[in-house]
Amino acid sequence: MTRKIISTDKAPQAIGTYSQAVQVGSTVYLSGQIPLVPETMELVEGDMRVQITRVFDNLKAVAEAANGSLADIAKLNIYLTDLSHFPLVNEVMAEYFSEPYPARAAVGVAQLPKDSLVEMDAVMELDH
Predict the structure, then answer these.
(1) Would you list the domain boundaries of the chain?
(2) Do 28 and 68 contact (CB within 8 A), yes or no?
(3) Which of 22, 79, 98, 126 has the fewest CB atoms found within 10 Å of its own CB?
(4) pLDDT confidence of residue 127
(5) Measured CA distances, 91 to 1, 41, 57, 94, 113 (Å)
(6) pLDDT over threshold 80, residue 67
(7) Rounded CA gap, 41 and 60, in Å?
(8) DSSP assignment of 23-90, as one string?
(9) Domain 3-125 coded CATH 3.30.1330.40
(10) What is the DSSP string of 79-108?
């Protein structure tokens, strides 16, 4: 199977040796997104809710660039430097997803790129 590289200027550009997403067949692997503002490549200013929202907006932009949507995400991985933010992630996620929800993991980590407090990556399955 061929690999298709997904790229959009509506999400932050890669800050390393990776692609925003890679499609293999009908599966799209979305790279980790932190709360970077695409236009400035700086972390969004604001509280944790604003940061989580920015991450979901970034994932949404990459999903749409692959001709999908957040509803097509089969697996979502969430990385938090402070697991006490887990209930807030659930609250914000409910604004972006409806049932059936994707499979998901939430992992506490010591540090994330650019000292972000949250990062998410995903696997999306396209039916079309």
Answers:
(1) 3-125
(2) yes
(3) 98
(4) 82
(5) 38, 26, 15, 5, 24
(6) yes
(7) 17
(8) EETTEEEEEEE-SB-TTT-SBPPS-HHHHHHHHHHHHHHHHHHTT--GGGEEEEEEEES-GGGHHHHH
(9) yes
(10) EES-GGGHHHHHHHHHHH--SSPPEEEEEE
Contact 79, 105 (CB under 8 A): no
How far CA 24 is from CA of 17, 28, 71, 126, 127, in Å, comes to: 18, 6, 18, 10, 13
What is the pTM (predicted TM-score) of this model?
A: 0.96
Place of tokens 């407090």: 117
pLDDT digits (tens, 9 = 90+) for 71-115: 999 999 999 999 999 999 999 999 999 999 999 999 999 999 999
What's the rounded mean pLDDT across residues 39-45?
Answer: 96
Quick one: which of 38, 37, 39, 43 has its CA closest to 117?
A: 43
Q: How many CA atoms lie within 13 A of 40 on its CB side?
A: 7
Which of 120, 102, 122 is closest to 51 using CA atoms?
Answer: 120
pLDDT at 70: 98
